[in-house]
Hints:
- The protein has helices at residues 2-31, 37-41, 49-61, 68-80.
- By secondary structure, the chain is mainly alpha-helical.
- It has one domain: Cytochrome Bc1 Complex, Chain D, domain 2, CATH 1.10.760.10.
- The longest helix has 30 residues, at 2-31.
- It starts with a helix and ends in a 10-residue tail after the last helix.
Amino acid sequence: xxxxxxxxxxxxxxxxxxxxxxxxxxxxxxxxxxxxxxxxxxxxxxxxxxxxxxxxxxxxxxxxxxxxxxxxxxxxxxxxxxxxxxxxxx
Length: 90
C-alpha cells in the first residue's frame, strides 16, 4: 500500500513539474516576441492573480497570440511562478 501511495505521489509531482515547464515554455514563446522574459521575470512574485489576468488580457488585445485557454494557463503560471523561475528566467 505504501508503495502505491509513494508511486502515485511521485507521478503527481512529475506531472506538476511538467505542467509548469510547459506553461513556462508557452509564456516564453508567446510573450517574448514583444518584450524579453526579463521584463516578466522582474515582476514574478510581485503581482496578484487578478493583476496577471488583466495584464495577459491586455497583451492579447495588443496582439499576443493566445487562445482563451492558453491565456488562462499563462496567467495561472505567472501567478504561481517564483522569482528566478528556472523554466522562464534563464
